[in-house]
Protein: Putative acetyltransferase YhhY
Organism: Tritonibacter multivorans
Amino acid sequence: MKIEQLTTIEWPRYRRLRLRALQDSPEAFCTSHETEAHWDPEQWQRRLTGTYTTFVAVLDGRDCGLVTVAALRGQPQDAGLFGMWVAAEARGYGAARALVAAAVEWARAGCYNQLFLDVIDDNGPAITLYARCGFVPTGQVGRLAPPRDHITEHQRVLPLHGSSA
């Protein structure tokens, strides 16, 4: 398992993997395949620049997972973990844990205080992974935007001082 940080010029690679994730797990994301499939190259490049950092898991030479981390809007001392996904054929090989570890390492290197994420309430494997990595519920709950507002989620946080993923 190898983890790579994407650069702006790798936007076609990011696009392929992100659209695959949106097709595979449509109810796990706040947006849809239909929306992002129509983005132009500049929109994809913006997702790989500025405050966004995206890591890709590579297994046997194939991209098999991704996660994005960024400073939280309105909370510049904290970071967020977004868009976590691992392909079915790569589950059980440590890709998810390696991606979370890369996100945590990035946040620590940026001197962020905490790393937040939202997880769908019925995604037991993800909840278990995040708990094993030290993320705890904050008590904040919510729903996805329509038309998926029937899906509930909750927030988790990892304090970055003295914790490990």
In short: The longest strand covers residues 75-86. The chain has five helices and seven strands.
